[in-house]
Design a protein that fits this description.
Layout (H helix, E strand, L loop, with lengths): L17 H4 L16 E4 L2 E7 L6 E9 L2 E5 L6 H12 L6 E6 L5 H4 L2 H8 L3 E4 H12 L3 H13 L4 H10 L3 H4 L8 E3 L4 E4 L2 E8 L6 E6 L4 E5 L21 H12 L7 E4 L5 E2 L1 H21 L7 H8 L6 H20 L3 E5 L5 E5 L1
Parallel strand pairs: 4-5, 5-6, 6-7, 11-12
Antiparallel strand pairs: 1-2, 2-3, 3-4, 8-9, 9-10, 10-11, 12-13, 14-15
Helix pairs in contact: 6-7, 10-12, 11-12
């Protein structure tokens, strides 16, 4: 039996699960300090940036390229992260210019400084189309109508009036942690091969955590830059959000994990959080079992019609602040929607306008 796997998002605490970690191997001792690097393979450098969340770091990657560096992901847009990049450019990365920026997906910790880095070095941004469009959309969608759409979504989910008012006060949050997204980009597609410094990296698409998340696999070195799709100690956040209220992202996530599972068993996984590890297939199996166990627990909470917020309180037993509550609702809805699409639950609208769910 696999122990409980904590969920990843910028709000819910990340508690390392040693029963999970014990099935994996971690070939590197320690973690790179800010503004330092660790070489995980010839010409592949591991960087680490702080985050102002409970999950307090992100791993970034610098790949030796012809005449310079290809960077993978950026950190959030704040002065601390910009300052650490400047230290890297004058320190461990000095002597080579940045020649390309690859962003795995649109989330703020991955795309926050995409505009700053591409402008600073005059280089192209490489992303998948859906991720670039999402980043552009969220960076510019900041009017009152967008906020009211979120308010309506959380009311239907059964959130408290206090929480809903907090959503309205917070306003559009994406733009607060993400700088300008370049108007031009180089599109990556699943199956594309990108030549970086004499190696070829194949683009492997992951769904569910983000709309078209790009992982990068180098067959020559058996390396997978996994982004947030496969993390060793925590389960990636998979949520239903206000802009796609009928989505079924968990079905997409579990399906695309099976495609990633076909990569070689000896692959060294370079995740965006925690440490590089081996045990890709075992970890994917654990994640699948974790979500099936969550579905079973969720179903027991729906003997009578309940809102997503009521179900979330049964799934997430620790205290949740304003920021964490939104992620708990989103993850709960992702599981409810998968259960519903499997024919295991129905939805009814109450007199108060909230949606309630009951298992069949």
């Amino acid at each position: 039996m696999v122990g409980r796997v904590p969920c990843y998002n910028p709000g819910l605490p990340s508690v390392e699960d040693e029963s999970v970690a014990a099935t994996l191997s971690y070939p590197f001792e320690g973690r790179p300090e800010p503004a330092t690097v660790t070489e995980v393979a010839p010409g592949v450098l591991w960087l680490r940036m702080p985050l102002p969340f409970a999950l307090n770091h992100i791993n970034l990657w610098a790949l030796e390229d012809d005449g310079g560096w290809t960077l993978v992901d950026t950190g959030i847009a704040d002065d601390t992260t910009r300052g650490l990049w400047e230290q890297l450019f004058s320190g461990p990365l000095a002597g080579r210019k940045v020649v390309r920026l690859i962003v795995t997906h649109f989330h703020p910790d991955h795309a926050g400084l995409a505009g700053w880095l591409t402008e600073r070095f005059g280089v192209e941004l490489w992303m998948t189309r859906a991720e670039w469009l999402y980043a552009r959309m969220l960076r510019s969608d900041t009017d009152a109508a967008m906020v009211e759409g979120q308010v309506a979504f959380y009311r239907r989910a059964g959130a408290s009036a206090e929480y809903v008012e907090g959503v309205r006060r917070a306003g559009p949050t994406y733009a607060k942690r993400v700088g300008a997204i370049p108007r031009e980009y180089r599109r990556m597609r699943g199956g594309d091969e990108i030549a970086v410094g004499g190696r070829r990296w194949k683009v492997v698409i992951g769904l569910g955590h983000a709309p078209e998340h790009a992982c990068l696999f180098c067959a020559e070195e058996n390396l997978l830059i996994a982004g947030d799709m496969v993390l060793p100690r925590i389960s990636p956040n998979v949520s239903v959000w206000a802009n796609e209220p009928e989505g079924n992202p968990l079905a997409d996530f579990l399906s695309s994990l099976q495609g990633i599972r076909e990569l070689p068993a000896a692959t060294l996984v370079l995740p965006s959080h925690n440490e590089p590890f081996r045990g890709l297939r075992e970890r994917i199996d654990e994640l699948g079992q974790h979500h099936e166990e969550r579905l079973e627990k969720l179903a027991t909470l729906m003997d009578e019609p309940r809102t997503a917020m009521e179900v979330a309180r049964g799934l997430f037993t620790r205290p949740l602040d304003q920021h964490q509550t939104g992620f708990a609702i989103g993850e709960t809805l992702a599981h409810i929607h998968l259960l519903r699409d499997r024919g295991g639950a129905i939805r009814e609208e109450g007199d108060d306008g909230a949606w309630r769910y009951r298992r069949i």
